[in-house]
Design a protein that fits this description.
four-stranded mixed sheet; 115 residues; alpha+beta; 4 helices
Length: 115
């Protein structure tokens, strides 16, 4: 089992990271990727507004650091969506990949199985 949570989106070469995760697994092994993802369309505008307007202000008030929270929102938007990440995992060598959206897609769990 290889498990990563809220880490993959910060990797510069996601394809290489996924290939390496597949390499170290035995046949039948699983990769679990829990990561922010693309939110469902009806919520997209509200989520963008929250992420780019409210979240940095909260970060400034709570942690004295709006920039880190602005980066968080930007890194989430740059990360591949559910379908693209699923395709990347298959290209990396995972024979079967399931995607489970959580909180309307704000977060998604990708499960890959190496055959």
């Amino acid at each position: 089992l290889v498990s990563v949570a809220f880490w993959l989106r910060n990797m510069t070469h996601k394809d290489l990271a996924l290939t390496e995760m597949c390499r170290v697994l035995r046949p039948g092994g699983r990769l679990l990727v829990l990561e922010f993802s693309k939110v469902a369309a009806p919520l997209a505008k509200a989520y963008d507004w929250y992420s780019f307007s409210i979240l940095p202000r909260v970060g400034q008030l709570v942690a004295g650091d709006a920039d880190s929270y602005r980066y968080l929102a930007e890194s989430i938007r740059m990360h591949p969506g559910q379908a693209e990440l699923k395709a990347m995992m298959k290209s990396a060598g995972f024979a079967h990949v399931d995607v489970h959206n959580l909180s309307a897609g704000v977060v998604a769990l990708h499960v890959g199985i190496k055959c």
